[in-house]
Protein backbone atom coordinates (compact mmCIF):
# COMPACT_ATOMS: atom_id res chain seq x y z
CA UNK A 1 0.00 0.00 0.00
CA UNK A 2 1.71 3.22 -1.08
CA UNK A 3 1.44 6.70 0.33
CA UNK A 4 1.76 9.61 -2.06
CA UNK A 5 2.79 13.11 -1.00
CA UNK A 6 2.40 15.93 -3.49
CA UNK A 7 3.77 19.41 -2.80
CA UNK A 8 1.56 22.14 -4.27
CA UNK A 9 3.35 24.96 -2.44
CA UNK A 10 6.72 24.89 -0.68
CA UNK A 11 7.55 28.60 -0.29
CA UNK A 12 7.34 30.27 3.11
CA UNK A 13 5.99 33.56 4.43
CA UNK A 14 4.66 35.03 1.17
CA UNK A 15 4.02 33.82 -2.40
CA UNK A 16 6.91 35.17 -4.45
CA UNK A 17 8.39 34.90 -7.90
CA UNK A 18 11.21 36.42 -9.88
CA UNK A 19 10.28 39.66 -11.61
CA UNK A 20 9.67 39.47 -15.40
CA UNK A 21 13.16 40.92 -15.87
CA UNK A 22 14.54 38.26 -13.53
CA UNK A 23 12.94 35.51 -15.64
CA UNK A 24 14.30 37.08 -18.84
CA UNK A 25 17.81 36.96 -17.35
CA UNK A 26 17.24 33.34 -16.29
CA UNK A 27 15.96 32.35 -19.77
CA UNK A 28 18.96 34.07 -21.33
CA UNK A 29 21.25 31.91 -19.16
CA UNK A 30 19.41 28.73 -20.19
CA UNK A 31 19.61 29.65 -23.89
CA UNK A 32 23.33 30.34 -23.55
CA UNK A 33 23.83 26.87 -21.97
CA UNK A 34 21.94 25.32 -24.92
CA UNK A 35 24.18 26.92 -27.52
CA UNK A 36 27.36 26.57 -25.44
CA UNK A 37 26.67 22.82 -25.40
CA UNK A 38 27.01 22.90 -29.21
CA UNK A 39 23.29 22.31 -29.75
CA UNK A 40 21.42 24.01 -32.59
CA UNK A 41 18.32 22.09 -33.61
CA UNK A 42 14.78 22.31 -32.12
CA UNK A 43 14.76 18.50 -32.02
CA UNK A 44 17.60 18.70 -29.43
CA UNK A 45 15.58 20.83 -26.98
CA UNK A 46 13.75 17.98 -25.26
CA UNK A 47 16.95 16.05 -24.57
CA UNK A 48 18.61 19.25 -23.29
CA UNK A 49 15.72 19.87 -20.87
CA UNK A 50 15.80 16.30 -19.60
CA UNK A 51 19.44 16.80 -18.56
CA UNK A 52 18.44 19.57 -16.15
CA UNK A 53 16.79 18.86 -12.81
CA UNK A 54 13.53 20.76 -12.31
CA UNK A 55 14.77 23.50 -9.90
CA UNK A 56 17.76 24.33 -12.13
CA UNK A 57 15.48 25.08 -15.01
CA UNK A 58 12.20 26.20 -13.44
CA UNK A 59 13.15 27.23 -9.90
CA UNK A 60 11.75 25.95 -6.62
CA UNK A 61 8.31 27.45 -6.97
CA UNK A 62 6.32 30.45 -5.91
CA UNK A 63 3.32 29.12 -3.95
CA UNK A 64 3.03 28.87 -0.17
CA UNK A 65 2.35 25.73 1.84
CA UNK A 66 -0.14 23.20 0.59
CA UNK A 67 0.52 19.48 0.65
CA UNK A 68 -1.69 16.64 -0.57
CA UNK A 69 -1.28 13.27 1.11
CA UNK A 70 -3.08 10.32 -0.39
CA UNK A 71 -3.37 6.56 -0.34
CA UNK A 72 -5.28 4.67 -3.01
CA UNK A 73 -8.48 5.12 -0.93
CA UNK A 74 -8.16 8.38 1.00
CA UNK A 75 -6.90 11.90 0.44
CA UNK A 76 -6.17 14.79 2.78
CA UNK A 77 -4.69 18.25 2.41
CA UNK A 78 -2.32 19.97 4.84
CA UNK A 79 -2.72 23.78 4.92
CA UNK A 80 -4.32 26.17 2.47
CA UNK A 81 -1.45 28.37 1.28
CA UNK A 82 -1.55 29.76 -2.24
CA UNK A 83 -0.62 26.30 -3.61
CA UNK A 84 -4.15 25.08 -2.86
CA UNK A 85 -5.45 27.10 -5.82
CA UNK A 86 -3.62 24.87 -8.30
CA UNK A 87 -4.70 21.72 -6.46
CA UNK A 88 -8.29 23.03 -6.60
CA UNK A 89 -8.05 23.56 -10.37
CA UNK A 90 -6.77 20.00 -10.82
CA UNK A 91 -9.61 18.61 -8.71
CA UNK A 92 -12.25 20.57 -10.62
CA UNK A 93 -10.89 19.36 -13.94
CA UNK A 94 -11.19 15.77 -12.70
CA UNK A 95 -7.43 15.20 -12.83
CA UNK A 96 -7.25 13.83 -9.28
CA UNK A 97 -8.99 10.86 -7.64
CA UNK A 98 -11.29 13.04 -5.54
CA UNK A 99 -14.79 13.87 -6.80
CA UNK A 100 -15.56 17.57 -7.27
CA UNK A 101 -17.92 17.44 -4.26
CA UNK A 102 -15.43 15.79 -1.92
CA UNK A 103 -15.57 15.16 0.94
CA UNK A 104 -12.38 17.23 1.31
CA UNK A 105 -10.26 17.01 4.45
CA UNK A 106 -8.06 20.01 5.24
CA UNK A 107 -5.67 19.80 8.21
CA UNK A 108 -4.40 23.18 9.41
CA UNK A 109 -0.98 23.45 11.09
CA UNK A 110 -1.53 27.06 12.20
CA UNK A 111 -3.07 30.27 10.93
CA UNK A 112 -0.25 32.46 9.68
CA UNK A 113 -1.16 34.11 6.36
CA UNK A 114 1.08 31.89 4.23
CA UNK A 115 -0.85 28.80 5.38
CA UNK A 116 -4.37 30.06 4.69
CA UNK A 117 -4.09 32.69 1.97
CA UNK A 118 -5.27 30.24 -0.71
CA UNK A 119 -8.40 29.00 1.13
CA UNK A 120 -10.79 31.52 -0.52
CA UNK A 121 -9.60 30.15 -3.87
CA UNK A 122 -10.42 26.54 -3.03
CA UNK A 123 -13.38 26.27 -5.41
CA UNK A 124 -15.37 23.56 -3.58
CA UNK A 125 -16.32 26.23 -1.00
CA UNK A 126 -18.68 27.66 -3.63
CA UNK A 127 -20.16 24.39 -4.88
CA UNK A 128 -23.60 23.27 -3.63
CA UNK A 129 -23.42 19.73 -2.29
CA UNK A 130 -19.69 19.88 -1.55
CA UNK A 131 -18.49 18.85 1.91
CA UNK A 132 -15.34 20.34 3.41
CA UNK A 133 -13.94 19.15 6.72
CA UNK A 134 -11.42 21.31 8.58
CA UNK A 135 -9.17 19.85 11.27
CA UNK A 136 -6.84 21.58 13.72
CA UNK A 137 -5.67 21.45 17.31
CA UNK A 138 -6.54 25.12 17.88
CA UNK A 139 -9.74 25.31 19.92
CA UNK A 140 -11.03 28.33 17.96
CA UNK A 141 -10.64 26.51 14.61
CA UNK A 142 -14.14 27.46 13.40
CA UNK A 143 -13.74 31.14 14.28
CA UNK A 144 -10.34 31.27 12.56
CA UNK A 145 -11.66 29.75 9.30
CA UNK A 146 -14.79 31.92 9.35
CA UNK A 147 -12.49 34.94 9.66
CA UNK A 148 -10.90 34.13 6.28
CA UNK A 149 -14.24 34.60 4.48
CA UNK A 150 -15.05 38.03 5.78
CA UNK A 151 -15.73 41.42 4.19
CA UNK A 152 -13.82 43.63 3.44
CA UNK A 153 -10.97 41.09 3.22
CA UNK A 154 -12.90 38.82 0.83
CA UNK A 155 -16.16 39.59 -1.01
CA UNK A 156 -17.98 36.34 -0.19
CA UNK A 157 -18.84 36.06 3.51
CA UNK A 158 -18.68 32.70 5.25
CA UNK A 159 -22.50 32.56 5.55
CA UNK A 160 -22.82 32.69 1.74
CA UNK A 161 -20.59 29.65 1.06
CA UNK A 162 -22.52 26.97 -0.83
CA UNK A 163 -20.55 24.03 0.58
CA UNK A 164 -21.27 22.38 3.87
CA UNK A 165 -18.29 23.08 6.13
CA UNK A 166 -17.50 20.91 9.15
CA UNK A 167 -14.99 21.52 11.95
CA UNK A 168 -13.03 18.97 13.97
CA UNK A 169 -10.90 20.15 16.89
CA UNK A 170 -8.15 17.58 17.38
CA UNK A 171 -6.69 16.42 20.65
CA UNK A 172 -2.88 16.74 20.72
CA UNK A 173 -1.07 13.40 20.39
CA UNK A 174 -4.33 11.52 19.76
CA UNK A 175 -4.51 9.57 16.50
CA UNK A 176 -7.44 10.21 14.20
CA UNK A 177 -8.34 7.50 11.74
CA UNK A 178 -9.41 8.83 8.36
CA UNK A 179 -10.09 5.94 6.01
CA UNK A 180 -6.81 4.05 5.85
CA UNK A 181 -4.77 7.07 7.01
CA UNK A 182 -3.82 7.55 10.67
CA UNK A 183 -3.14 11.18 11.55
CA UNK A 184 -1.53 12.32 14.81
CA UNK A 185 -0.81 15.98 15.73
CA UNK A 186 2.45 16.93 17.50
CA UNK A 187 3.62 20.39 18.52
CA UNK A 188 6.36 22.15 16.55
CA UNK A 189 8.62 25.01 17.69
CA UNK A 190 6.82 27.99 16.23
CA UNK A 191 4.93 30.99 17.59
CA UNK A 192 1.15 31.05 17.92
CA UNK A 193 1.53 27.81 18.06
CA UNK A 194 1.93 25.35 15.15
CA UNK A 195 1.16 21.63 14.97
CA UNK A 196 2.90 19.09 12.77
CA UNK A 197 1.27 15.85 11.63
CA UNK A 198 2.49 12.30 11.50
CA UNK A 199 0.53 10.39 8.88
CA UNK A 200 0.73 6.64 8.47
CA UNK A 201 -0.78 4.21 6.02
CA UNK A 202 0.02 0.59 6.81
CA UNK A 203 3.84 0.48 7.01
CA UNK A 204 4.54 3.90 5.40
CA UNK A 205 4.91 7.07 7.47
CA UNK A 206 5.13 10.75 6.55
CA UNK A 207 6.07 13.42 9.07
CA UNK A 208 5.10 17.04 8.33
CA UNK A 209 7.32 19.44 10.31
CA UNK A 210 6.71 22.89 8.82
CA UNK A 211 6.74 25.55 10.34
CA UNK A 212 9.32 24.85 13.02
CA UNK A 213 12.48 26.42 14.41
CA UNK A 214 13.74 23.10 15.73
CA UNK A 215 14.79 24.65 19.03
CA UNK A 216 14.21 21.30 20.75
CA UNK A 217 16.51 18.70 19.25
CA UNK A 218 17.45 16.18 21.97
CA UNK A 219 15.06 13.39 22.87
CA UNK A 220 14.64 14.87 26.36
CA UNK A 221 13.76 18.30 25.00
CA UNK A 222 11.29 16.91 22.50
CA UNK A 223 9.48 14.95 25.21
CA UNK A 224 5.94 14.10 24.04
CA UNK A 225 6.72 15.34 20.51
CA UNK A 226 9.58 12.86 19.95
CA UNK A 227 7.37 10.27 18.13
CA UNK A 228 6.86 12.80 15.31
CA UNK A 229 10.48 12.07 14.33
CA UNK A 230 10.59 8.33 14.94
CA UNK A 231 9.90 5.47 12.49
CA UNK A 232 9.52 7.94 9.64
CA UNK A 233 10.00 7.23 5.93
CA UNK A 234 9.83 10.87 4.81
CA UNK A 235 10.14 14.01 6.92
CA UNK A 236 9.23 17.43 5.52
CA UNK A 237 11.33 19.95 7.44
CA UNK A 238 11.59 23.74 7.68
CA UNK A 239 14.86 25.05 6.21
CA UNK A 240 14.06 28.68 5.50
CA UNK A 241 17.44 29.86 6.83
CA UNK A 242 21.10 29.07 6.50
CA UNK A 243 22.74 27.83 9.70
CA UNK A 244 24.36 31.25 10.52
CA UNK A 245 21.05 33.05 9.81
CA UNK A 246 19.37 30.81 12.37
CA UNK A 247 21.31 32.50 15.18
CA UNK A 248 20.42 35.98 13.86
CA UNK A 249 16.74 35.09 13.53
CA UNK A 250 16.15 33.35 16.85
CA UNK A 251 12.45 33.04 17.77
CA UNK A 252 11.29 33.71 14.18
CA UNK A 253 10.01 30.13 14.09
CA UNK A 254 12.03 28.68 11.19
CA UNK A 255 14.97 26.33 11.00
CA UNK A 256 17.96 25.23 8.92
CA UNK A 257 18.66 21.97 7.09
CA UNK A 258 21.51 21.00 9.44
CA UNK A 259 19.04 20.77 12.37
CA UNK A 260 16.79 18.43 10.37
CA UNK A 261 19.74 16.27 9.34
CA UNK A 262 20.89 15.89 12.96
CA UNK A 263 17.43 14.66 13.96
CA UNK A 264 17.26 12.36 10.93
CA UNK A 265 20.67 10.77 11.62
CA UNK A 266 19.78 10.10 15.24
CA UNK A 267 16.26 8.80 14.59
CA UNK A 268 17.13 6.85 11.44
CA UNK A 269 14.75 8.83 9.21
CA UNK A 270 15.08 7.52 5.66
CA UNK A 271 14.40 10.68 3.65
CA UNK A 272 14.02 14.45 4.22
CA UNK A 273 12.65 17.21 2.06
CA UNK A 274 13.57 20.74 3.10
CA UNK A 275 11.13 23.58 2.47
CA UNK A 276 9.51 26.86 3.54
CA UNK A 277 11.98 28.62 1.24
CA UNK A 278 12.40 32.29 2.04
CA UNK A 279 10.31 34.55 -0.25
CA UNK A 280 13.50 36.47 -1.09
CA UNK A 281 15.59 33.37 -1.87
CA UNK A 282 16.55 33.09 -5.55
CA UNK A 283 17.25 29.80 -7.32
CA UNK A 284 20.96 30.52 -6.85
CA UNK A 285 20.58 31.20 -3.12
CA UNK A 286 18.69 27.95 -2.55
CA UNK A 287 21.39 26.15 -4.56
CA UNK A 288 23.96 27.66 -2.18
CA UNK A 289 22.00 26.48 0.88
CA UNK A 290 21.82 23.05 -0.79
CA UNK A 291 25.62 23.09 -1.24
CA UNK A 292 26.18 24.06 2.42
CA UNK A 293 23.83 21.23 3.43
CA UNK A 294 25.84 18.79 1.29
CA UNK A 295 29.09 19.89 2.95
CA UNK A 296 27.56 19.40 6.42
CA UNK A 297 26.06 16.04 5.43
CA UNK A 298 29.41 14.72 4.14
CA UNK A 299 31.32 16.06 7.16
CA UNK A 300 28.78 14.48 9.55
CA UNK A 301 29.03 11.07 7.85
CA UNK A 302 32.83 11.20 7.84
CA UNK A 303 32.93 12.25 11.48
CA UNK A 304 30.59 9.38 12.39
CA UNK A 305 32.79 6.91 10.52
CA UNK A 306 35.93 8.07 12.33
CA UNK A 307 34.27 7.80 15.73
CA UNK A 308 32.43 4.54 14.97
CA UNK A 309 29.08 6.25 15.46
CA UNK A 310 26.43 3.97 13.94
CA UNK A 311 24.55 6.34 11.62
CA UNK A 312 23.25 5.49 8.20
CA UNK A 313 22.83 7.53 5.04
CA UNK A 314 19.83 9.83 4.70
CA UNK A 315 18.31 10.72 1.34
CA UNK A 316 17.60 14.44 1.25
CA UNK A 317 16.81 17.32 -1.08
CA UNK A 318 15.08 20.68 -1.27
CA UNK A 319 11.41 20.53 -2.26
CA UNK A 320 9.89 22.39 -5.21
CA UNK A 321 6.30 23.10 -6.25
CA UNK A 322 4.79 20.13 -8.07
CA UNK A 323 7.17 17.53 -6.60
CA UNK A 324 5.52 14.20 -5.81
CA UNK A 325 7.04 11.49 -3.63
CA UNK A 326 5.60 8.00 -3.48
CA UNK A 327 6.48 5.99 -0.38
ZN1 LIG B 1 4.81 29.53 7.22
ZN1 LIG C 1 4.12 30.30 10.60
Helix-strand blueprint:
Elements: E1 4-9, H1 20-36, H2 45-50, H3 54-58, E2 66-70, E3 75-78, H4 84-92, E4 104-107, E5 131-136, H5 141-146, E6 164-169, E7 176-178, E8 181-187, E9 195-201, E10 204-209, H6 219-222, E11 234-238, H7 243-248, H8 257-267, E12 271-275, H9 283-306, E13 315-318, E14 324-326
Parallel strand pairs: 3-4, 4-5, 5-6, 10-11, 11-12, 12-13
Antiparallel strand pairs: 1-2, 1-14, 2-3, 7-8, 8-9, 9-10
The structure holds zinc ion (2 copies).
One zinc ion is lined by residues 12-13, 65, 112, 114-115, 211, 276.
Description:
With 327 residues, the protein is an alpha/beta fold. 27% of the residues lie in helices and 22% in strands. The protein has two domains: 4-17 and 61-319, Ribonuclease Z/Hydroxyacylglutathione hydrolase-like (Metallo-beta-lactamase, Chain A, 4-Layer Sandwich), CATH 3.60.15; 20-56, no CATH class. It is built from nine helices and 14 strands. A hairpin with a 7-residue loop joins strand 8 (181-187) and strand 9 (195-201). The longest helix is centred in the C-terminal third of the chain and has 24 residues, at 283-306. The model has no long low-confidence stretch (mean pLDDT 95). The structure holds zinc ion (2 copies). One zinc ion (ZN) is lined by residues 12-13, 65, 112, 114-115, 211, 276. One zinc ion is lined by residues 12-13, 65, 112, 114-115, 211, 276.
Short description:
With 327 residues, the chain is α/β, with parallel strands linked by helices. The chain has helices spanning 20-36, 45-50, 54-58, 84-92, 141-146, 219-222, 243-248, 257-267, 283-306, and strands at 4-9, 66-70, 75-78, 104-107, 131-136, 164-169, 176-178, 181-187, 195-201, 204-209, 234-238, 271-275, 315-318, 324-326. It has 2 domains: 4-17 and 61-319, Ribonuclease Z/Hydroxyacylglutathione hydrolase-like (Metallo-beta-lactamase, Chain A, 4-Layer Sandwich); 20-56, no CATH class.
Amino acid sequence: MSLSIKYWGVRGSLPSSKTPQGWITHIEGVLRSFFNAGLKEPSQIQKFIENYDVPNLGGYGTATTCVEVSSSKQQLIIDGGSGIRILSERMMSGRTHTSTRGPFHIFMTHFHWDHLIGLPFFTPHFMPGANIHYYGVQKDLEKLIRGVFQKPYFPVPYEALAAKVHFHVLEPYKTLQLGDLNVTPYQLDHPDPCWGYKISCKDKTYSHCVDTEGTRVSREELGPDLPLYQNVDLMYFDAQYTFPELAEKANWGHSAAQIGLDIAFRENIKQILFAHHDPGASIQQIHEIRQQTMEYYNWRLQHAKQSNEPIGEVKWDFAYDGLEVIL
